[in-house]
Predict the structure.
Amino acid sequence: MSVRDFGYSVSDQRAVDLDRKMPDELERVYLQEPSLRNCIACGNCAALCSAGSFTGFQFYRLNVLVSRGLLSELAKKAEACMLCGKCQMACPRGVNIRHGIMLMAQL
Amino acid sequence: MFHPFVLPFSIGFTVMLVVLAVRYAYWLRGLSLVNRKRCLANLFSIQTLRGVSEILRESLLHLKIYKTNPVLGFMHMSLAFGWFLLIVGGKLETWYYTGDFANPIYYAIFFRYFEPVTSGFWMNGVMVFFMDFSLLLVLTGLALALAKRIRKKLVGMQNTTRHSVGNRVALTFLWLIFPLRLMAESATAGQHGGGGFLTASFGEWLFSGTWAASFEVPLWWAYSFSLGLFFLALPFSRYLHIPTEMVLILLKQWDIKQETGFRPQKGLQAFEVHACSSCGVCLDACPGINLAHDAFQASYFVKAVRENREVQSLATSCLNCGACNSACPVGIHLEGLRLDCRSQIFEQSQFNHSYLPVPMVLWRETTEVILYTGCMGRMQPKTSIAFKALLTEAGISFVHIDEKAGVCCGRPLALAGAKDQAVKMMTYNRDLINGHNGKVLVTTCPICYRYFSEEYQLDIPVQHHSQFLWELMNKGLLKREMQTLKLAYHDPCDLGRGSGCYEPPRNVLSAIGQLVANQKERDKALCCGNNLGSLSLTETTRQQITAKTVEVLTQNKPDYIVTACPLCKPTLSKQSRVPVKDLAELLLLTKHHAKGHPVSAQQYQKILDS
């Protein structure tokens, strides 16, 4: 039985592919701030974000972009952050979010 | 008056002078034009004399180190001041005996070899005694320095800097100089007579036999070699701090301003990083000592900068709590240096806050207090609620400007090295504040308080809520009775060391209970572990720092730990068994407090809800 195509599918580019080699820039971000890998995208950080109340900025989504290897969108999205650090106080996984943002904003 | 053994010393000394002159000229040329003009303008002024007096107090007598640690201070004093006395005494001696001030430098250094027996009026005795006394002073310091290497706790230090091989070699030459001088002078005294209480008795004891004659010249050679090699190593090792600290003191007295950017190989920053002696006083002051993976303490950071090594993780780990800054006996701007370094590391990091709206002002409401609780205040509304209840109690009108939506004050960005990018946020906040007609801006967050007062240049005064509450109590608008409460106060970094506000919160607490002391208070206070200054310190390390701080705070079994910062409070309460409260909360609590019966958690919640 063939799968019916409803016109929706995961685009190859956005699929999480663990075998794919990450861009070197992103590897470096993980190397310099290993705690980014601890993120489980729970969303606590976005729940109290100052920048998020003005824009669609959500850190956990940014972090998902890193694991998808989507370099181009990252820096553009990271630049909204005010670096106030509330997210870090709320993060249950101890991610150094502010450092992560500083590194992402460099890309 | 010449012997070939003076050559090693003379060569080493000359090379050192040339290298120093070249390096200093290069660094001075790197100063900004404004600063260079200041140098010239203040060169012949009272400031220079003040500088000389500070050099005497700090570079020779080491009074600041003496105040914090007498044994360590005495060690540095006896080495530096003792050697200084030897140099001055030597010059005076040659001047006195030859009647000629201008004689070769080596003549004073090796004077006893050329003139073993001196005679004169009573002055001769004074001279001979003075020289031996100075040598003894240096040797005492040397003995202490040796003891410090073997057991640092003897001189009251928990941690000392680990030095590189080059520095250890230079240290060995330095240490050899003085025992060799003693031996050489004693050998001469033993053979030819003369010498003071130290050298004469040593000479008689060790070198009086005819066999010892062959030791005399080799000992002088060895003394000259150790001097020459030390002087050769000086401009390339940490001992460069000896002359550099003196120049730095003069530069500061000439009112040189901090320069922008991170250029540690040029200008004022070059003088600062090379004035660091790696003495290690900052190590014991650091709350993160021996906890983090990297030894990021100021001493190691400055060393890495000096040696032009990779400093990224050292610069981003530090909590920027300022403890090293206030402990540094040389007065290096360690906090500023790190932030400048961060701004270089994150040069490429671009932020864009153009999405921020312009606050609309339809009507400038007149009020006494403009209350700003900051980002962190929004996470912990209890403090804001309590403070507002206190304002109502005192009959003060207020407007809480960031109750609904707030924008960060900008200091966290500055702490990450992106100070220039906080402009939009600052404009937003400034507009928000100016949109109200208030007499005073009060903030419950020390981070905001520091940034508002240092950077915003507002038309109205800025106060931290602890200062404002103390004013209210002073005016009699808030009345509290003394209670049987034991309170431990935790100094937030940005309020205490950062803004010099130590007394107001203590005054408030002393009015309602008994303040219990602890080991690390005021400018020595430990960081709670969650200062926004740190970017890359791991969660585990932060928690270890918190644990240490909580341990110190609960030493004397307080009923409450009180702090005045929305970052310290949740951080400490995560680990503390003793309840942690903000100053305002406690003040509100004591209103409802029956003597000696603390309010339970449920009751407290009711108070806040009402």
Q: What stands out?
A: Chain B touches chain A at residues 312-313, 316, 346, 348-353, 355-357, 375-376, 378-379, 405-408, 412-413, 416-418, 425, 530, 532, 535-540, 567, 570 (CB under 8 Å).
